[in-house]
Design brief:
about 35% helix; single chain; globular; alpha+beta; about 100 residues; ABM_dom; AI-2_Isomerase_LsrG; Alpha-Beta Plaits
């Protein structure tokens, strides 16, 4: 199993639109092969930090997710609503990769 934690600092003025857009992305992601869970949350410590917690069956499934058409739409839509790039941590087999 592959775990992913993705954190994105949102612009305060775009927070509601960011969350709404991510909810639409979530609906499509949950239909993908190998997606066990995919949830987005506002951080309890920082109201402008969005945290996505994902679980995937395999790395191939996760890689396919990154190439999915709705992810391209999401990346373009959300790009102007961030104060910095998303930090992605992939956890598998006892190791953590950070992007």
């Amino acid at each position: 199993m592959i775990y992913v934690i993705a954190t994105t600092p949102m612009k305060p003025e775009n927070k509601d639109d960011f969350i709404k857009g991510h909810k639409a992305c979530t609906v499509e992601t949950l239909k993908e092969k190998g997606c066990i869970s995919y949830e987005g949350h506002v951080s309890v410590n920082n109201p402008n930090l969005y945290v996505v917690v994902e679980r995937w069956e395999t790395r191939d499934d996760l890689n396919a997710h990154g190439r999915a058409p709705h992810m391209k739409v999401w990346r373009e839509y959300s790009s102007q609503m961030k104060t910095a790039p998303t930090v992605i941590e992939i956890i598998s087999d006892g190791k953590v990769e950070k992007f």
